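Reading is simple: each integer encodes one residue's backbone shape. An example follows:

___
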Amino acid sequence: MQLLDVRSPEEFAQGYISGAKNINYSSLDFRTQVAKLDKKTPGLCLLPERHPKWAGG
């Protein structure tokens, strides 16, 4: 299971779930970074309001 934390680095630094990968959804290369994730491993995003962008919506 991949755990993706799409909050800003500042939000991430305030606390995160162990093993989470931080990719800032506001970064210019967000889609490039997400494209590098293992597509065969299930992923989970814990912020529904930011999930559609991660999922390509």
About this structure: The chain has three helices and three strands. The longest strand covers residues 2-5.
